[in-house]
Design goal:
about 500 residues, alpha/beta, Rossmann fold, 2 domains, six-stranded mixed beta sheet, 17 helices, globular, AAA+_ATPase, ATP hydrolysis activity, repeat
Amino acid sequence: MDKIPYVSIENISKTFGKVVANVNMNLTVHGGEIHALLGENGAGKSTLMNMLSGVYTPDSGSIFIHGKNMNFTCPKDAIKAGVGMIYQHFKLVEEMTAKQNILLGQNSGIFFKDKLEVKKIVDICEKFQLEIDINKYVCDMAVGERQNLEILKVLYRGADILVLDEPTTVFTQSETAKLFKIMKKMKQQGCAIIFISHKMDEVMEICDRITVLRKGEAVKTVEKENATPKYLTELMMGRRADLSINRVDKEPGEILLQVKDLKVLNAEKAEIIKNMSFSLRRGEILGVAGIAGSGQKELCEAIAGIEKVAGGEIFLEGENLVGESPRDIINKGISMSFIPEDRLGMGLVASLDMVDNLLLKDYHKQKGLFIDRKPVIEKARKMVDEFEIKTPDIYHPIKYLSGGNIQKILVGRELSMYPKILIMAYAVRGLDINTCYTIYDLINEEKKKGTAVLFIGEDLDVLIQLCDRIMVICHGEVTGIVSAVDASREKIGMMMVGKTVEEGI
């Protein structure tokens, strides 16, 4: 490591009205190091990095870059100093190509005219092993490609300090592996990398040192070799961690949802869901496991009336829902808490506050010409307390909240609808460990009430512990439905790649 740190943050503090985001925060990051920031949602990670990247100005304290005291007044100042911030929600123009996005805002203009600029980009791609087609439009890129483009964009602008804010939230395992390969290459080239993540296994795999934040303060920095996931979790929470899911023993009731021979086509008219059939009972949690892109999203949206059904039937208490509008389906008691790749692209409106986002699903139930906001305001305040949502107030635009707090609002809103059937896809994605287990407890409470829950998750251990049955899908087909009590990671893993239950044993 270098003698002079690439980043040295000393006694930084920042408040937003009554909300204290950071208190006398200290952080040191060296070149050739991958440094993790861990903390619960609202612990101050994003605020700290926004000050490092020039988005916010500290109320007090100092930021040193390569030993020089900096006073950033805007992101451009931070970029000039070599700091590159890569956000959860990509800052890309979808209607432009990769190279147009890279050069956007630069002196050379939007379009490349100088072959030297193209060569510079190609050289950076080769140096850091970034696989990008610079002539490809962003709208045609997968999530992993967009992430690589964001990295390339900041490297092109001269950054040797990179901040990655929850970069793997919506990644498949292979996309995560590719990103880690790039991060290791950047580390070899002497870059300083700050990695924000809630995924403990990733932190333990890729990072050198870990700083734990709690309630706006840096409580401890540890070498990875001296840490364990349990120890780090207890530092984050400030108490002993009980990370266990207690399965609720409840005999499932009658069938509420029956899906028969469901068929859904993608934009190219190819079958993305192929003759899928299953049932869901009252007071049952049916888990869905599958490699990303196996049809989970399309299944959720077909049941909720968002995705057009090409064939088959979806029965709710004997009534076929195919052809019904999403509003009609919600009125029949199906509530969908679907957490997409872009949290703010579906379900919530970024520019609105909590109250208005809750009102989006409440207003149609009210009678008369005027909307009564009082019940929704009370619901928002209750949700802030129950989910420990960190926000200056319930009238604060949600786009300024952390990704985890935005997700809490989305999940909380769906739970507040008192549905017969609750569809939860990646409901804990991007949430800290403590909040994840809060969500699991809430799902169990819904089960006790007799709610039928379709739970799509990524963590096989959670699916086994939480669910009653697990349906495994591969390439849009059901490869088997097993009792969670009899399931194992190995059996489910084999079924996820196309093996039948018998073949997977």
